[in-house]
Amino acid sequence: MTDGDQGTTAARGSLRASTKRRNKHWIRELAAHLLLLPLAVSYLLPFFWMLSTSLKSDAQVYAFPPAWIPQPVVWDNYPRAVNFIPFMRYVQNTLGLALFAIIGVFLSCPPVAYSMSRIPWAGRHLLLIVTLSTMMIPYQVTMIPLFTIFTRLGWVGSYLPLVVPRFFGAPFYIFLLRQFFMTIPQELTDAARIDGASELRIYAQIVLPLVKPALASIGVFEFLAQWRAFIGPLIYIDKPDRYTVSIGLQMFRLEYGTEWQMLMAASVLLTTPIIIAYFLVQRTFVQGIALTGLKGV
């Protein structure tokens, strides 16, 4: 066999091996998607049922067996739901509350996380443990003491009890940002210190721009937390014109029954923008979560 024949045989063998690897990879991908498809459908079923109920008539809501596809489709449930309660007013209240809460966590959490991860000072690990330990305390334990404090401050009836604590940090966000800060090479900040940069300048101009995925993640987390918050607004807000969307949805539960069609229609209107926003920032959000575990505590 000549050298040319040997080269052709080797090339064919390499091509067959490459084709076999591609086929195996394709089969693994197909098997994974076949396993994930039922799980995805199970997650979509509640939203589909909510959407279906929002388009049903009274008789179809209580029909047995339940109908997945409404016949006929009642689009009028959506304008009725918006007009049944001050829908847009509640949305504006919630958006304003979420905006100030996000500003609060952006101002308070990154500096604390930076000091715990980039500045070597005595006791920072102990303080981190204490900070994380506060996450183990249920909200029901601190609810009455906090209400007493805010009552004496005269804040009950306003948004201050819901917004001001966010300007003093949140343990989960501090931990999330700290883990992200630790993925940044220490040599980067050491070089800046050698060049005479202050700690504040290093934080604001060098480190902070590198953690945009983590900041986006805590922004999404905080927005969702304020969007679906119920206990806090229920305790501290006592005027109907200041209600948030979570409390507003409870107005569809009347004394002698629940307006399920309008409740589901309002829920669809409130849920759909969140789903769309998540898909728009999905890559940044996933990156911010994935990179936080690259270095340990």
Give an account of the 3D structure.
The chain folds into two domains: 51 residues; 216 residues, MetI-like fold (Orthogonal Bundle). The chain is built from 15 helices and two strands. The C terminus is likely disordered. A two-stranded antiparallel ribbon has the order 1-2. The N and C termini lie far apart (62 Å). It is 71% helix and 1% strand. It has 297 residues and is mostly helical. The protein is flat, with a radius of gyration of 27 Å.
N to C succession of SSEs: HHHHHHHHHHHHHEEHH
Query: What is the share of helical residues?
Result: over 70%
The averaged pLDDT comes out at 83
Number of strands: 2
Could you give the distance between the termini?
Answer: 62 Å
Strand order of the largest sheet: 1-2
Helix/strand/pairing category: mainly alpha
Low-confidence blocks of residues: 293-297
Beta-strand share of residues: under 5%
Question: What is the level-2 CATH architecture name of the largest domain?
Answer: Orthogonal Bundle
CATH class descriptor of the largest domain: Mainly Alpha
Biggest sheet overview: 2 strands, antiparallel
